């Protein structure tokens, strides 16, 4: 007989630990297990070990709503975030429910028994566990392989090529000439970190610029409020302050892109050397928030450029050479180490295959209900965060909603709940976002609809009201 639990969570990262903590505190009589494919918890924050790895959202919104992030550090390093996630797991007893080394490969729903049968690989063998409710909290990154396009001639390069997702522990960049290919959050984190760690010189090679915004490394409001009101109250106030500011920046960026472009440029000019080619290296061709903005604490990237330890080159790669990279312009960048900060691959539901009564679920043929359930898939939820705000803001809302569903099922004796798609609602891509990692796979993702509750707002202020007050008998959810 396979083991059975009320709720089975896939993934023991930021989302999975948060989901399990919600069950532990709000539904203490619920049996649950967390299946984690790796041998450690923490997800992204345990996987990524590259120099300087940190949050790209402020910690007072990236932290859980129910457990304050202590202190005034706004953009925290990876080790501190990992400690926070694991401390949360210990505090709520979640760590005792995690099964490590379990790679979920299949999950099959059977309507007759109202159960999921989940198959996982463990040490080369397969095991199964059944559950009344399945909750995918594996994020949307492929943990096995980052996005690594092949460059012409790269096999000729005599130095070392590394991808940040799999940073080698033996890499010492001290005194080395390092070229970081990319312009996203990982690249703007790596460049100043490698420069500070003693690299001979660091060059950020970008095909096109990204919006880079300097923010304070510490939140002075949080620090002052903590002295007056304590950690919990100051966290709540700071969290809402940052939510409102993030929302305002996003809305202004969409409505007045030229204004935001000018403001960001002015900030860049103020922190770079006189006469620096700001429009060459920091003026994107797209509007603000067409892609995610990059935040740098206390302008560390600009300081590295100003003191000469780092350089930005905007050009295209023609070919690798034995000793570096030849650019389309003819310039050659000599390098000992090349870091391909070229992005990540997306993977829905950790790569597991879902089926309902023997029929394989094709995600792109489903519609996402409130961006957390799939049409036609019973007793299933998934957690995916915002692209324009902290991941955990949405993760907490999903957890609260799933708890409501489970309480309703228990109170009414319902065995299943499933969103039923309205054929009159037109479909559009789930993510209206120009980032490469989204565009490469957007055709494989679930769709969203053009009307509620199928439309995705990408707005916490909207969702905080809509999701928390949503009727569970809305005519879309079918209970049985």
UniProtKB/TrEMBL annotation:
Its cofactor is FAD. SUPFAM superfamilies: FAD/NAD(P)-binding domain (SSF51905). Coiled coil: none annotated. The keyword Zinc does not apply. Keywords: FAD, Flavoprotein, Monooxygenase, Oxidoreductase. InterPro entries: FAD-binding_MO, FAD/NAD-bd_sf, Flavin_mOase-like. It comes from the Bacteria. Belongs to the FAD-binding monooxygenase family. This is NAD(P)/FAD-dependent oxidoreductase. It comes from Nocardioides hwasunensis.
